[in-house]
3-isopropylmalate dehydratase large subunit (Glacieibacterium frigidum), 454 residues
Amino acid sequence: MPVTLYDRLWDAHVVAAEADSGALLYIDRMLLHEVSSPQAFAGLRERGLRPRRAAAHLAVADHAVPTRARHPIADPQARAQVALLEANCAAAGIEYLALDDARQGIVHVIGPELGFTLPGITLVCGDSHTATHGAFGALAFGIGTSEIESVLATQVLRQQRARTLRVRIDGVLGQGVSAKDVILTLIGRIGAGGAAGFAIEYAGSTVSGMSMEARMTLCNMTIEAGARIGLIAPDDTTFAYLKGRPRAPVDAVWEAAVAYWRTLASDPVAVFDREIALDAAAIAPQVSWGTSPDQVVAVDGVVPAGAGKGALAYMGLSAGAPLAGLAIDRVFIGSCTNGRIEDLRAAAAVAQGRRVADGVTAIVVPGSGLVKRTAEAEGLRDIFIAAGFEWREPGCSLCVAMNDDRLDPGQRCASTSNRNFEGRQGIGARTHLMSPAMAAAAAVTGVITDVRAL
């Protein structure tokens, strides 16, 4: 029977099938960070176990690390988390990228840029945005702490087979419209739980024309639509990105790998459980107005009638209010959604020759040390600094209030991150999700602004 890409990847990793549509899946690789791994390592020690395949794992601290002064970490809890990850990895023989390593960064940025993420593999991490890696045609999903322990000990996980949803996006995106706007449009259309229980495959001419950075943004926020897995079939764009990466295959093994990767696609007549189509030309720059990623409208729209009173009260808005022109206090450009070099280039293009508005604090946080180095070599840091942005070290930063970057109560932030939940960026903080170009436009105007007007 014709099969989808998801089915093909699932079937290739089944160790033992179960009667209830579940299976024991082999896990090829796992990324570890400081927040979700301590209990897993403790569980191994209590059972007298060691990792079954230490070389299958890669660890880095990202959530709790400061993006200003690195040494010493001022916050005692963050300092203890980072130190414990380093100690656990040393004891287990797992590679750990220290804070002063040029490759350090956010797990979902470093995995692809190091070639640790490859098409056809299963990849997990104790973080919901592991769906990012599906942009390479990998079966990638976030897991919990007990599951991390299971993968460390056995390299297998018990999982339930998902239903399949294909999202076709066709046409050409307009000026000022990015992959972030595409995924926010989808989430706004189907709701934050609209894809629960599904694995999403993104397809269509728009997706085929996207860079790998854009594809990663698309897959990254799959979880915000309720699905744990987002997939894009690998193609020449994928292979060009991976070739020469430190952990990618080389020589004859590379050629054999590419030949196999080309088979990783849905059959032309494969049947999906559900299908959705989006017209790229109809998508405008998006801005979230509420406290869930599906509470989003086009930048030239208004807060919808019937909007939840709780979200409106928290955000200090009212139904019918326009978003364009709304004053902001902070701007955050970064995160595993939009902290890659292409994202920084888009923001710098808007910032160049302009200045951050009075009363606005704007920070740029590269997703990794390698992104930071590239941005500095291209002169992007100089553009941001000249415009009045703060230039930081890599880390999750203001995406989540687990480090020293956070908002004060009532502050309003134009953010390129992935979630706008209550308290996500700090107690009482108000978050408006948008693309890097849109965030830069807000920074230089002091208000939410349609970047197309600049």
Notes: The mean pLDDT is 97.
